[in-house]
Design brief:
The chain has 302 residues and is mostly helical. The chain has one domain. Helix 2 runs antiparallel to helix 10. The longest helix has 33 residues.
Length: 302
């Protein structure tokens, strides 16, 4: 983004971390619903593999020039880049899609609410960076808002939610993604397009063997309209754009301040249900939105 004119609209956009991270949550909220919707149409590891292959080739024309220039730096930090590719791309998404084969989108959104705590755990373990009191308070407040939205204002409904192996896989995906988010502090200094292209490319390569095994094991893959639309959405929005925005947001404000924006996912999910599915807005929607947004503001401030 350094080649962008200083006062261009793109330069302004690239320096708005709250907007970038909000859009990331919007795209990832749609991805959770999509992952559950296409269960039975696309095998989970294959969906993850195709997602990253598509994202890599979508990004490559824009990343080719800076990637060639930054390749010596990427090669010097290749072990770290490979870990980022594995945790942020190959393992994280395969586990998440796999888990969504066995659980509901509701459970997925609830589990996703622990994402900021997973990021905080790994930044503490790896680098000794502790949450500030404001960050912890903001996470608690926004997590309460998540529960209010998803449980439709009835917090006692938590007792009726059944835990299954899909939930364990989703939580495992969050733990893996927490490593990626924490390690972004140590990312090599390159053009943003260089790093996202390298990590998506390596992540796609890492996914190929497991995808081939999955398809050879007899898991069905249906090429229909649902599959093609799902793949198109997964490649463009929660992959190429969301990760580019998320990486930039972390670069601007750090992982612990960026992570609470994950709590916007159920806000966007419920809002999409109101707009596109005709769900009636209720008082608990407004209460949850206020709590989530307040928590995000508290946690993301300096």
């Amino acid at each position: 983004m350094s080649s962008t004119p200083k006062h261009s609209p793109l330069s302004w956009f690239a320096n708005q971390p709250y907007l970038l991270l909000s859009l990331t949550s919007l795209f990832w909220a749609g991805n959770i619903v999509l992952g559950r919707y296409v269960a039975g149409h696309v095998p989970p590891v294959t969906l993850s593999c195709v997602r990253w292959i598509g994202a890599f080739f979508l990004l490559l024309p824009f990343a080719w020039v800076p990637l060639r220039s930054d390749w010596p730096v990427i090669r010097k930090h290749l072990p770290l880049v490979l870990v980022l590719a594995f945790t942020g791309f190959a393992a994280n998404t395969a586990l998440a899609y796999w888990g969504l084969q066995y659980t509901q989108a509701l459970n997925g959104l609830l589990i996703q609410s622990s994402g900021p705590l997973c990021v905080a755990l790994w930044t503490l373990i790896l680098f000794g960076v502790r949450l500030t009191l404001a960050q912890l308070l903001g996470i608690v407040v926004s997590m309460t808002g998540v529960f209010v939205i998803i449980l439709r204002g009835d917090l006692t409904a938590l007792a009726s939610i059944e835990i299954n192996k899909g939930d364990a896989m989703l939580f495992g995906a969050l733990l893996v993604f927490g490593i990626y988010s924490a390690l972004m502090i140590k990312r090599p200094v390159t053009h943003p397009m260089s790093l996202i292209a390298a990590t998506t490319g390596f992540g796609a390569l890492m996914s190929v063997p497991a995808s081939l095994w999955e398809l050879n094991s007899g898991t069905p893959l249906f090429f229909d309209r649902v599959t093609l639309l799902a793949l198109a959405y997964a490649v463009i929005f929660p992959s190429a754009l969301a990760y580019l925005f998320f990486n930039r947001g972390i670069a601007l404000i750090g992982p612990n301040r960026a992570a609470p924006f994950l709590h916007l996912m159920p806000v966007f999910g419920s809002a999409m249900a109101i707009v596109f599915l005709g769900e009636q807005p209720q008082a608990f929607h407004l209460t949850g939105y206020v709590l989530v947004i307040s928590g995000v503001i508290i946690a993301s401030r300096r």
